[in-house]
Amino acid sequence: MRNERPLRIIHCFRSPIGGIFRHVRDLAEAHARAGHEVGIVCDSTTGGTHEDGLFEAVRPHLALGIIRTPIHRAVGPSDLGLLWRSYKEIRSLQPDVLHGHGAKGGALARIIGSALRVNKYRVARLYSPHGGSLHYDRKSPAGGAIFRLERLQERLTDALVFVCDYERQTYFAKIGRPPGRSELVYNGVDDAEFTPIETRPDMADFLYIGMMRDLKGPDLFIEAFERAERLKGRHLSALMIGDGPQQRQYEEMASRMGLGDRLMLLPAMKTRAALALARIVVIPSRAEAMPYLLLEALAARRPVIATRVGGIPEVLGADSPALVEPGNAQALGDLMADIVDDESWAHRTMPDPERIKARFSASTMAGRIIQLYRELSEEALFAEARLRTT
Description:
GO molecular function, one term: glycosyltransferase activity
Protein name: Glycosyltransferase
Order of helices and strands: EHEHEHEHEHEHEEHEHEHEHEHEHHHH
Strand order of the largest sheet: 3-2-1-4-5-6-7
Structural class: alpha/beta
Number of strands: 13
Mean pLDDT: 93
Distance between the termini: 27 Å
InterPro entries: Glyco_trans_1, Glyco_trans_4-like_N
Pfam family, one: Glycos_transf_1
CATH topology of the largest domain: Rossmann fold
Strand content: 15-25%
CATH class of the largest domain: Alpha Beta
Keywords: Transferase
């Protein structure tokens, strides 16, 4: 049957770091195993040794290959060259689906997909904001300009895909309700990740995993850890694992506060390897959409405390005692001190693992996304047929 044929899918995004890259890798692997052909277009100037390893791991699943080209965060004249280079590469791959992730990836997928349609070539155009531009204040000059661009691009979009309801409602409030189709498909993790990780006596007390930039709250983690030690009246231990533009700043901050021998900073590594090094995961973000780390930690049976941002309350529960208000290092430190010696806290507070698995599995996510791709590809086919008759 025509609608059962393998699809040719290309994911466009800017930075191969963090949750977007994880999301794309999960989709690529699941869809490749289902017989579809997948490719990636992303930035060539970001990422390091850790990301190189991730690319090598996913490469066998990418029949359409990996296209890496310079993609700058800010909008500028260089984007014209980026669009032309990417258009030629993507056109040669003849995709059925272009799925853009984040503001820059979304622009690439939708503008190039629309250019292909002008040339009477069918392709479905999807966009997942993944937070990104939605973090801006709509009253700021930058936010106002970005949201106007987002609104204009809705005309080039066959479907918006949100990874949590918070992201969807924020889009509606800041940009407006899209005139076309929008879907909510939660992030998910693989069944194998729901295997508990052993807890050992020599583990650190607290763990931060993520990008080293203020948006993710490493500075709040350091301040909260120092406060937790003062409240407990003894030394605790913590690890900060990740890379990013402000890493040196946090190293100096920890040293200045006299925490150097108890709070260690390590380079990025695989999440489950990091989760095996500490007992309690802390997510101190100032803003989020739906962080994979939260799902990975819960799947591994690691207790989590987090800020009340993005889709986190949709997972932990709106009234969860594991949540504190964003930007409040004092409240975060108080909670860290309260639970560090409370062995029953996780059992009382964390959501049921089976419920998490049923709602946030990678197989459910990938299945819903491929169903959407098929439906939109059929619509694009009819649109192409209409163009050919005009």
